[in-house]
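Today's session is about reading a structure prediction critically. Students often jump straight to the picture, but the first step is always the sequence itself: look for stretches that repeat, for charged clusters, for runs of hydrophobic residues. Only then move on to the predicted structure, which in these notes is written as discrete structure tokens rather than atom positions. Here is the chain we will use throughout the hour.
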Amino acid sequence: MSVADAPRGTAPGLGARLSSHWFAIAVALLLLIALGLRVWGIGHGMPWAYNSDENAHFVPRAIGMFGHDLNPRYFVNPPAFTYVLHAVFLVWFGGREGVSEAFASDPTPVWIAARLAAAVLSTVAVGLMVWAGNRLFGRAGGLLAGALLTVSFLPVFYSHQALNDAPTLAPICLALAGAAGVLRGGSRRDWVIAGAGLGLACATKYTGGIVLLAILAAALAQAGADRRGALRGLALAGAAALAAFLVANPYALLDVSAFADGLSHQSDASADEAGKLGLTQTNGWRHYLWALTWGFGWLPLLAAGAGAAALARRDRWALAMLLPAPILFIAFMGAQERFFGRWLMPILPFLCLLAAAGVLWVVALLARRRPGLRWVVAAGVAGIVLLQGLVMSVHIDRVLSREDTRNEARAWLSRNVPAGRKIVIEPFLPGSWAQDPGLPSTRTSTGERWLKWPTSRSDVDPKTGERVPGGVVVNVEDYERTLRPELIDAYRRGRFCWVVVGSHQKGRALAQPDKVPGAIAYYRRLEREARLAARFRPYDPGAKAVPFDFDRSYVYFPLAYERPGPEIWIYRLRGAPCGPPVDVR
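Below is the predicted structure for this chain, in token form.
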């Protein structure tokens, strides 16, 4: 059997009965659902972006480009999404003056515009996923693959963030559509599409380059029938990939040293053991397999396994195109010292296609005796496979559409703690949280509403526990390692009578109390010697607190969550003189 004659699906006849008219309607409906799931709750947390990566990377750098040339001067993350945001801000706000004024006075419109860009690109990925699935397994396969990507939890959640994770899915799906075209025929256009998708994926997120394996598999399939044609196609795809990469990341060539430094830093960061306090899992491979059960779904995973088994019998080149990438990706990423669920997202399109093949195969088996009920069976099986993702995606959208606990806590502080007072705020919040947007306070030298304890410095080295004359800079990841009971005496001496504690920090210590006994003793003393003035819980009334986890505590996956944010405790130290508000006027 030649490549061109390879079977286009594992449920013959199912896609053929779907006319182009109804197929177009189904795709349009799917895209509307995908967009709806990705924009519902998109304004969560405003006017603050609480995700530290969202707050630090793409939006500020896209704005910064208005003050200099288009060199991002930062390549730890590739700049394609930054350029997209720069263009969006140019159109939306009219350029430097408009976006700078908006970001300074009320950053909400800027964040919303950036998040909408991510949501739209993620929705485009769904359409491209349908195209790739259609080319591999027919119309029904395309709709199934697109539906799986539509409701998968990780893509839905991270489409609400101005990060490059969800946008990277679009070029990956484009490359898969091109590779599928190569596998099923191999026109020049397909090679160009595959290469362009690869280049754009790498320019958006470096790990998006995993889609290269699919292109190589399709090329090997073609080489069996036309070796020279496959080599020419690979050369064409390579040229298209390089061109697309340089269009979306031109300073990789124009500023080679900065680009190399960024790549080196990214590699070091993924292998760095810093910030491991609070880990509930220490095995990267086990962690990623576990993350797939909720980030993608149990039944979709089983369907992907069934799809791999079906393709092993019916379409081995399609299997070669889809299966190696997830296996090798997890093998490599699981060997790193740091691992997070969202880093799995580049392989989700592969799993969607495998799961679509599995659903089609199961439908073919179940409907063999009753062909007339094929569509009923297909709807039932697809509904079951999609159910977990749909339920959890609706859950997270409902959570994100409600008030964040961090906003509630700030509103309480604004009402009850006068401006200029001294307070201790654990570093689970962005620095701008203490400032009224567009209205810097005249009561503090920093312009913040309250005078904050310097949690970014400590006279204890977090790595050794030794005293350091003059102190050291402490990053957010090491904060718990610097806590000790004596700090409460220092708070009193300095008239810092209010202490704000968040479970995103405290939870790390509680997860591994043996590693930070000083922090445990600190929290116990704080509870003994302070009055709990206010408490803000993100959970349903009566629900138990969710144990800290570096993934699910930030994406609010458990159904116990009612609203976004950590649990927050606000304490008033007994015997601590607050004194009058500071006035620097």
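Discussion point for the tutorial: The first helix runs from residue 20 to 39.
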